[in-house]
């Protein structure tokens, strides 16, 4: 047992009670329920436990919470998390009250326990533990905790632009969110794929028409939509046709390949996780597709009659929803602009509605902070760390790398099977404790 293990053990009742109270505050960003209570509670934790200077940063939506604790050197680390949670629906699928912390079989269950309140309070308690055991921080620590992550972080870029030269000035950003590797080993992520998502609607008439009376006279919106899709993507060549789409796609470096080689990979477990039986990829191919290749996905198509039997109609409209994952230095704004130009060719029938546009984010693999973070996480876990050059999913880390222009490390504390956004969201009790230790050792190692 180390000094931090002893301290956590002696204070765990208090730590658990703090987590329980944070969970009970709710903080559902889609409805606003409990947002003020959650802000008040998080701000009180910063003030009472860390003696931090705090500010509430107003936005056009839910405000962000800023906290600052001075240290003995000018080096500054900014920690990011979020206090908002998803709605718990469907509540009847939960085995316990989603806003009452429940412990069973070594896991905590509650809405937001993994995403992101358990991880957030583990950060705070890790810094608190360091202060109690060492009196002073070795460097400046700042927190920015937003309240709209579950709604796409729509106002986070504005906050970073407004306060980037003042409150948010830092040498390094550490994002504590997401899930560990499915093996249970800790993960350090250096980047993530970007995202462009949109909807194309084709409307050729005010209402459905009889396919005999109107056939060859009224345009079929499904066929028009199919023409648009073929302009965007070639199924024959298995490639995207959007102009300049592949500009900025980068190949993995030798160091990336070395890190990937150390990541566990089991084809059968991957097939089981995705519910398929035909993933014929070796490890290098699998991770190359997830980390360094963009995607073009149609997530839904809606039109016409899909009930029993047949209905002889020409539908009046067809809708398709798309999401595209971007990598490397692909330009999300340019790609979205070129998609709109393709859709405009089919005016007045076709219109497009943009939902989100996040550029990919990447931190240089030769950053000296990486080895320091690895040392800290391995001290906290007694396990070999997995380094992922790129996360397959999308988070708004571009606000740190592209707007704040600071290197960014993503370190998730939650287990891979946390069921975030679903009923019975959970966090392993030991992973919660490891999260506290990870925050403690990050302070210790970056201070040495």
TrEMBL record:
Pfam families: M20_dimer, Peptidase_M20
Highest taxon listed in the record's lineage: Bacteria
Boundaries of every Peptidase M20 dimerisation domain copy: 191-346
Annotated keywords: Hydrolase, Metal-binding, Protease
Enzyme Commission code: 3.5.1.18
Class of enzymatic activity (EC top level): hydrolase
SUPFAM superfamilies: Bacterial exopeptidase dimerisation domain, Zn-dependent exopeptidases
InterPro entries in the cross-refs: Bact_exopeptidase_dim_dom (IPR036264), Cyt/Met_Dipeptidase (IPR051458), Peptidase_M20 (IPR002933), Peptidase_M20_dimer (IPR011650)
Example of a GO MF term: metal ion binding
GO biological process: proteolysis
PANTHER family in UniProt: BETA-ALA-HIS DIPEPTIDASE, DI- AND TRIPEPTIDASE DUG2-RELATED
Protein name: Succinyl-diaminopimelate desuccinylase
Gene name of this polypeptide: dapE_3
């Amino acid at each position: 047992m180390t000094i931090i293990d002893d301290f956590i053990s002696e204070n765990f009742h208090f730590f658990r009670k703090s987590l329980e109270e944070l969970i009970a505050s709710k903080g559902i960003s889609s409805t606003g329920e409990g947002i003020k209570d959650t802000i008040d509670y998080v701000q009180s934790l910063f003030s009472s436990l860390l003696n931090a200077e705090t500010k509430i940063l107003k936005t056009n939506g839910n405000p962000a919470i800023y906290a600052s604790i001075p240290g003995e050197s000018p080096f500054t680390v900014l920690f990011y998390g979020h206090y908002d949670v998803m709605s718990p629906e469907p509540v009847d699928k939960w085995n316990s009250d989603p806003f009452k912390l429940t412990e069973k079989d070594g896991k905590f269950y509650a809405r937001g326990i993994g995403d992101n309140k358990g991880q957030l309070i583990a950060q705070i308690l890790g810094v608190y533990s360091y202060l109690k055991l060492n009196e002073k921080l070795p460097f400046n620590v700042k927190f920015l905790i937003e309240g709209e992550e579950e709604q796409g972080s729509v106002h986070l870029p504005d906050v970073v632009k407004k306060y980037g030269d003042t409150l948010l000035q830092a040498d390094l950003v550490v994002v504590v969110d997401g899930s560990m590797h499915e093996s249970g080993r800790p993960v350090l992520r250096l980047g993530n794929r970007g995202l462009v998502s949109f909807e194309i609607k084709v409307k050729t008439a005010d209402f459905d028409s009889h396919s005999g009376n109107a056939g060859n006279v009224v345009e079929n919106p499904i066929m028009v939509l199919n023409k648009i899709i073929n302009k965007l993507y070639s199924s024959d060549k298995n490639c995207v046709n959007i102009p300049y789409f592949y500009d900025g796609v980068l190949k993995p470096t030798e160091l990336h390949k070395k890190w990937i080689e150390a990541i566990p990979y089991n084809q059968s477990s991957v097939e089981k996780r995705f519910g398929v039986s035909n993933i014929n990829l070796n490890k290098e191919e699998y991770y190359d597709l997830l980390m360094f290749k963009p995607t073009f996905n149609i997530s839904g198509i809606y039109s016409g009659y899909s009930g029993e039997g047949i209905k002889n109609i020409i539908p009046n409209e067809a809708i398709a929803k798309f999401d595209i994952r971007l990598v490397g230095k692909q330009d999300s704004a340019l790609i979205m602009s070129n998609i709109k130009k393709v859709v405009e060719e089919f005016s007045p029938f076709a219109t497009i509605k943009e939902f989100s546009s996040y550029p990919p984010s990447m931190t240089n693999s030769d950053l000296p902070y990486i080895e320091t973070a690895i040392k800290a996480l391995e001290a906290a876990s007694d396990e070999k760390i997995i380094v992922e050059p790129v996360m397959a999913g999308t988070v708004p880390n571009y606000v740190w790398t592209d707007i704040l222009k600071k290197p960014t490390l993503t370190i998730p504390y939650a287990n891979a099977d946390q069921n975030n956004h679903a009923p019975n969201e959970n966090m392993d009790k030991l992973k919660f404790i490891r999260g506290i230790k990870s925050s403690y050792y990050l302070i210790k190692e970056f201070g040495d």
